[in-house]
Amino acid sequence: MTNPNALRIGRDLSLNLLAQMVRIRRFEDKCAELYTQEKIRGFLHLYDGEEAVAVGIIPNLEAQDAVVATYREHGHALVRGVPMTSILAEMLGKQTGCSRGRGGSMHLFDNATRFYGGNAIVGGGLPMAVGLALAAKMAGREEVVVCFFGEGAVAEGEFHESLNLAQLWQLPVLFVCENNGYAMGTALARSESEIDLVKKAESYEVHAQSVDGMDVIAVTLAARDAVAQVRAGQGPVFLECKTYRFRAHSMFDAQKYRDKAEVEEWRQRGPIVRFQNWLLESHVIHQSDIDEIEARVAAEIDTAQAAAEAAPFESVEQLYEHVYGVGSDV
Amino acid sequence: MSELTYREAVREAMCEAMRADERVFLMGEDVGRYGGCYGVSMGMLEEFGDERVRDTPLAESGFTGAGIGAAMGGMRPIVELMTVNFSLLALDQIMNTAATVRHMSGGQFGVPIVIRMATGAGKQLAAQHSHSLEGWYAHIPGLKVVAPATIEDARGMLQAALDDPDPVLIFENVMLYNSKGEVGDPSSIRLEGAAVRRPGADLSLFTYGGSLPKALAAAEQLSAEGVEVEVVDLRCLRPLDDTTIVASVSKTRRALIVDEGWRSGSLSAEISARIMEQAFWSLDAPVERLCSAEVPIPYAKHMEAASIPQVESIVATARAMCISA
């Protein structure tokens, strides 16, 4: 890592960023293991390789802010503070899951941390983020709404409609495009006539920037400025984070659309390995710090797994609960 | 009691809600400067300003989704979609987000949004502005779907919809906007439940929205012939009021459903099935349906008129059902 900005980050923050990325990686390793054991079913989309994005952005938020994410959102939920136990319980379909087992991996929701999913329609979360920001602005509340989506979403009409509305109405939304190069198996250049995503956002007069999404410090610094700008009421910001997913799109994906060499090349630039090595080489941290992080994360995962596996399933009698709300006639 | 048009009743309901609750706002295409494509929101921009009467770009999915997000963020938005045909551009947001979020989030988040739209044929607007797709929406758990047919309901159901914790879709038949009627105390109007608009002993006629005035006119004609039709206004298409439907059929022993939607896979099919399931042994005759012709609604006046239920066809169908007995 040659990023001179890294020098602006102290030891405590560096350790914290590293720990959060490791926490996501190890947690998802466990998820993959539980998937092969058929304890987690359905789709499972792992964030392996993209951790620097959520970890670089979400810690810049305040409690009153809101997060809207996609179906690849385990990392975002973890960093936002949704308890690991309730995330894992959700994936196991348990009643103690953050969505009571109704959503699964793709639909993590948490009111306490203002985590609005877990949206599995590509692009579908963007209008929701615009609306959350509109509500905040109309009610005079100082909130920032961060909306994560992949580069595949820029092809959807809702991307264009949402950027336009957010800029037109000067709404406090930080749009974070996690550009991992592939919309499932389709490379950006195979599906878009214009692959410069910053240009697309700028065409709506939205302040836009692209950063190396494999560099947690670059993301942190860019996000810090972007969140401040949005919070100051200067309208939305678009932040493209160029990243890469090391694993398959989902557990069903045979990955015929990309070379193993390409994956390997990106792995060398992995957000954890690169940051960790730089911190070690710079003597900001020592191997014992890493060992301590790994041990702490392993213990947390063990505890979460034990609790999630022991938790009850919702009873079938509760199937019809929450189709309609309290106060409804139904 | 004061007399209002349907259009004025909806406007008055919106204005009153916005005066009483600062969380309520209106947004949609041309609702502000233009005054609404059917003139429903005329004058509201002047009273409430452009923050609360919000003109949107032609981006149905974007602004409907923004309404959903605003509702989740504590506001009480009223989103106007020009017609049900255009609502299909927002169907993803309505179906995949508004209708699902509460259940999918384990009850943590609700979407108290009201979405109003025009529906129905009769203004020679042809096949992309004239359909009645409310039955499609009535298919979806998590939504409530209402079709006010009277001035009193147009006035009262909007507030009831705003008071509801869930997404409510209000379908306003374009042929009703100029109709006039008396309005009493709107707070007595409930969102759900069917209403018997005309009692009768010989046949139950179930209908809603723009077909209600036609059904009542048909019942009047038939009464002169000695056939007493009970006209039941469904009002709320989801949830359906099975109790009122079954009670009426149990009394008259004959049922005719008049629905401006298409017949195949329709709301009329659903009502017919429920009558079979719950009142089969009360029936003296097969349930009959009078629906729109299964064609895209055409432009030419005579062809358009022939496409949807009319007083004459209702009278003929009802008469045949009673004579054949």
Can you describe this structure?
By secondary structure, chain A is an alpha/beta fold. Chain A has one domain (4-318): Thiamin diphosphate (ThDP)-binding fold, Pyr/PP domains (Rossmann fold). In chain A, 44% of the residues lie in helices and 12% in strands. Chain A has 12 helices and 8 strands. Chain A has helices spanning 11-36, 51-57, 74-80, 84-91, 125-139, 157-168, 188-191, 197-202, 216-231, 260-268, 271-281, 287-310; strands at residues 66-70, 115-119, 145-150, 173-179, 182-183, 186-187, 207-212, 237-242. In chain A, the strands form 2 sheets. In chain A, strands 2-1-3-4-8-7 form a 6-stranded parallel sheet, with helices on both faces. In chain A, strand 7 (207-212), helix 9 and strand 8 (237-242) form a beta-alpha-beta unit. In chain A, helix 1 (11-36) packs antiparallel against helix 11 and helix 4 crosses helix 12. In chain B, helix 3 (60-72) runs parallel beside helix 5 and helix 9 (211-224) crosses helix 13. With 325 residues, chain B is an alpha/beta fold. Chain B folds into 2 domains: 2-188, 3-Layer(aba) Sandwich (Rossmann fold), CATH 3.40.50; 195-323, Rossmann fold (3-Layer(aba) Sandwich), CATH 3.40.50. Helices cover 39% and strands 21% of the residues of chain B. Chain B has helices spanning 6-20, 44-52, 60-72, 84-87, 91-98, 101-104, 134-137, 151-163, 211-224, 242-252, 267-279, 301-307, 311-323; strands spanning 2-5, 24-28, 53-55, 76-83, 114-119, 144-146, 168-173, 180-183, 195-198, 203-207, 229-233, 236-238, 255-262, 288-292. In chain B, strand 13 (255-262), helix 11 and strand 14 (288-292) form a beta-alpha-beta unit. The longest helix of chain B is centred in the N-terminal third of the chain and has 15 residues, at 6-20. The model of chain B has no long low-confidence stretch (mean pLDDT 96). At the A-B interface, strand 2, helix 5 and helix 6 of A face helix 3, helix 5 and helix 6 of B.
